[in-house]
Structure formats: C-alpha cells, structure tokens
Amino acid sequence: MIFEFGCGDGLDAQYFSNLGFTVFACDSSHSAIAAARAVHAGPIFSKVDVGDGAQVKSFLESAPRPPRESARVYFGRFFLHSISEDDQNLLLREIENNSSRGDLLCLEFRTIEDRKLSKVFPDHFRRYIDYDRFLEQITKRAFKRVLLSEKGRGLSPYKSEDPFVGRVIVQRE
Q: Is pTM, for the whole model, over 0.85?
C-alpha cells in the first residue's frame, strides 16, 4: 500500500497501481485531483491540505492497515520542497503517528545546491532543503534506518533542466 503526497497529474500513482499496489494519492489542488481522476483508473485520489493535520490524519486513516508482513510506503516525489517547513514537520509528524514498524518513507526533493540552477518553471515556489540537516532530523524520529541516501544531479532530469535533488528511503524501527 502506497500513500503519495503531492500527486499532481497522478502519473506516479498510476505507475504504482499498474505494478499491483493499492495507491492512495493526494494533492491540495482540486483541479489536479479532478484531472487525475478523469484520466487514471486504480489509484484513489483525494484532495488533502498537508498543512491541516486533521486532513492528513483522515487521509492516512482512510485505508485499512495491511497484513503484518506488509509495509506501508509514504511517498513524495518533488513535493517536500513545494511546502513550508512547518507543513513538512506537520506532515512528518502525522506520518509518524500513523505508521508502524517496517513502514517506508520515500522522498525526493530539491536541495540548497539547486537554488541557483536554471529552471523550466522559474516562477514556481521552491523551498531548497539542506539535505544533510534534513536526513539528520528525519533519522532522529521514528524512521531511523536509512536504506537509501543520495543527492546530486542526473537523478531527475526534466526537459532542459537537471536539478540538484536529494533522495532518501528510510524505514521505521
């Protein structure tokens, strides 16, 4: 079971659904959710404001817990840098409160090294994240086991853009 945050057009959600995963995907944009529902079958799309703890909690509790041997995956690709640090901390706290041992947190985000690089969409809001500080903070919480830690360019090229991103996969202990 995968919970995706910031699903946008739903392409990642549909990809995971095509692989056989049950996918719950959310975005704060009503139009993005409507478009994703119109195009994709399989994922369950919801409008969720991650700055509202009650909405995040309700979204996470909307799915039954998988069998003990199955982990939940909390996924955000190019999402974390699009929200405030306060919203990030609220989201991570709600994930922590609703996760269990073995669950995975998988994130990809722009780092401070990306700040001065050219952008395809230069007017989008971006919060550039200090990768090392973030990894240190996240592993002080319940998701302590680092399964993947990488940062650099060449990880997520898009059109003429090659952003400097960080990726982490951490497991709850």
A: yes
